[in-house]
Amino acid sequence: MWTPWRIVGESLLSVVLGLLAGAAELLSDGGTVRIAVAALAAALLSPLRRVLPATVLLTTALGMSEFDGLSPLVVVAAWSAGRRIGGVGKAAGTFGAAYVVILGLTLLKEAPPSLLSLALVAPVTLVMVVVPGLISRYWSQHRTLADILREYNAQLLRERAMIAGQARMRERQRIAQDMHDSLGHQLTLISVHTGALEVDRELTGRQREAVGVLREASVAAMHELREVVGLLRDGTESPGQGSQGGQEGRGGQLGQGATSHALQAMGEEDATAPSRGAAGIEGLVEASRGAATAVELRRSGEPRPLAPTADHAAYRVAQEGLTNAHKHAPGASITIELRYEPDALVVEVANGPAPEAAGTGRSVVSGGQGLTGLGERTRLIGGMVHAGPTADGGFRLAGVLPYTSPEGAPSHSSGGAATFVDATDDFRLQNAAGPSDEGDPVIDWNSLPKELARAMSREKRRNGIAIGCGLAALFGLLLLIVVVIGVVVFLQEADKAMIEPKQYDAVKMGQSEAKVREQLPDGESFLTSGLDEGAPPEPKGAECLTLMSTETGDGLDEPVFRFCFKGGKLIEKKSFEIRR
C-alpha cells in the first residue's frame, strides 16, 4: 500500500512528465491529437513503472521514435527499472534492448543515417538509459545491504544488552549470596549472643538495657541486610524470607533455649521494624540516645511525600551521619535537622567536636566507602550530598533530595533496575536508539554469523560482477564513441585539406582562380598547418593554396600540392614532398 505522501508524489510526477511531453510536442509543431496522446501516455506510464518496470521502459523506448516528449519519462523509467528488475541477466537484457531500440529507431528516421548522427545519438542514448539504470541499481543494492547490516546491528545490540543483563544479574546474586553467608552469619551470632545475654539473671538493669540496645541494633542491621540482599536479587527473594532459615541453622550451635528466645525476639522486631524512610529517622535517633549519646532532632517546613528512592536516601543520609559521628566523635552531641524546602528535602547531620577523653585508644574500622556510595545514591535521584568539617571542629553531612525523581531516573517502586555506575559507563546509555547511518556504536563485523557473511559475500560478488561488467561495457562503448567521433572529425577535416593526384592533374595552368578554387577544397583545416615549412619559395606577389595528397609518401616524406594565383589566374602549380 502506498502512503499518502507517496500518492501525492507520484501524482505530481505524472503531471510534470505529462506536461513536459505535451510541451515538447507543442514546440515541434505537433497537432492537438499528438499533444494529448503524448501527455496522456507519459502521465499513465509514470505510475506503472513501479509495477511493470521492464515493460514501461521498453514501451517508452518504442514511443520515443514517434514522440520526442517521452525523453524525460525514459530517464525516470530507467531509474526505476534499475532498482526493481531482479537478476543481472534480466536487467542487462532489458537495458540492452531499450538502448538498441532507441538508437536504432532514431537512426532510421534519417535516410541514410550518417556517422555524425551515430556519434551524437549513441552517447545521448547511453546517458538516458544505461547510466541511470546502473546508478539506481548500485544505490538500491547498497541500501539493501545497509538495511541488512542495520538489522543485524540492532540484533547484536539486543543480544549484548541481554548478555550484560544476565552477567549483572549473576554478579548481583553472587554478591547477595556472599553477603547473606558472611554478614548474615556474623549478625546472627551477635543477635543470638546478645539475646541469650539479655535474659541472664546476673545482669544489672543498666547492663540489661545496654545489651538490649545491642540486640536491637543487630536485629535492625539484619533487617537492612535482608533488604539489600532482596534488592540485589531483583526481588527473587523478599526481605525477611530465606535469610532467617539460614540464621536459625547457624544459631542452633549456641543452645536451644537462648537461641529460640533470641530468634523469637528477632521475629518480633522484624514484624514491627520501622520504615526505612524519612519516618524511620526518629527510630535512629532513639537508638542513638539509648547508647548514651545526646541527639537532637529538628523539623522545619511542611512535610511533603517523597519518591520511594528519595525517601530511602533520606534515611541513609541520617544513618550515615550518625554512624560517622559514633565512629569518629564518640560522646559528641549530634543534631539532625529535616528541612522541607519548596523543591527538596534537606537532611543535615552535624556533630560537635569529640571530647578529649572520649575514644582514646579505640580502634575504628572504616572502609571509606560510605560517603561515596551515598553520593552515588543521591546522584541517581537528582540530588546531591555535601560533607565537610564545621567551624567548631565538628563535622557536617547534608543531603538535598528532590521530592520527585528526574525523568529517566531509576525507581525501585516502578520496578526499574538501579545502577550505581556513572552514566558514561552505563551499558544501556551507551546504546541509545538513533539513526543506524549516524552515530551508531562501532561493531566488530568479524563476528557476523556464517549465514549472513556467506549471503553478503555472494551478494557482493554478484554485485561486483554486474557493476564491473556494466562499467566495462560503458567504458568500451564510450571508447568506441570517441573513436567514431574522431574518425568523423578527421574525415571532415580531410575533405577540407586533401585532394587526389588526378584532381591535381586536372587543373591547368592559366585557368581562372575562381574556376580552380571551385574544383578544390578551401584548405582551412588544422591538417594544413606546417605544410609551408621546407616548401619551395612561392612566386613573388602570388597567393598560394597548399593541400595534402590522399596518397602517402615513402617513409617520413609527405606529398603536397601547391597552387599559386596572381592577377586572378593560376600562375603555378607544384608538387613536392615535405618531412613532418
TrEMBL record:
Q: What is the lineage of its organism?
A: Bacteria, Bacillati, Actinomycetota, Actinomycetes, Kitasatosporales
Gene Ontology molecular functions = kinase activity
Main EC class the enzyme belongs to: transferase
* Positions of the UniProt region annotated as Disordered: 233-259
Q: Which keywords, in A-to-Z order, does the entry hold? A: ATP-binding, Kinase, Membrane, Nucleotide-binding, Phosphoprotein, Transferase, Transmembrane, Transmembrane helix, Two-component regulatory system
Biased composition of type Gly residues is found at 242-255
What is the name of this protein? histidine kinase
Cite the SUPFAM superfamilies for this sequence: ATPase domain of HSP90 chaperone/DNA topoisomerase II/histidine kinase
Q: Where do the Signal transduction histidine kinase subgroup 3 dimerisation and phosphoacceptor domain residues begin and end?
A: 171-235
Coiled-coil positions: none
What reaction(s) does this enzyme catalyze?
Answer: ATP + protein L-histidine = ADP + protein N-phospho-L-histidine
Transmembrane intervals: 51-79, 91-108, 114-135, 464-491
Question: Matching Pfam families, A to Z?
Answer: HisKA_3 (PF07730)
Which domain of life does this protein belong to? Bacteria
Q: What is its EC number?
A: 2.7.13.3
**Can the keyword Heme be found in this entry's annotation?**
no
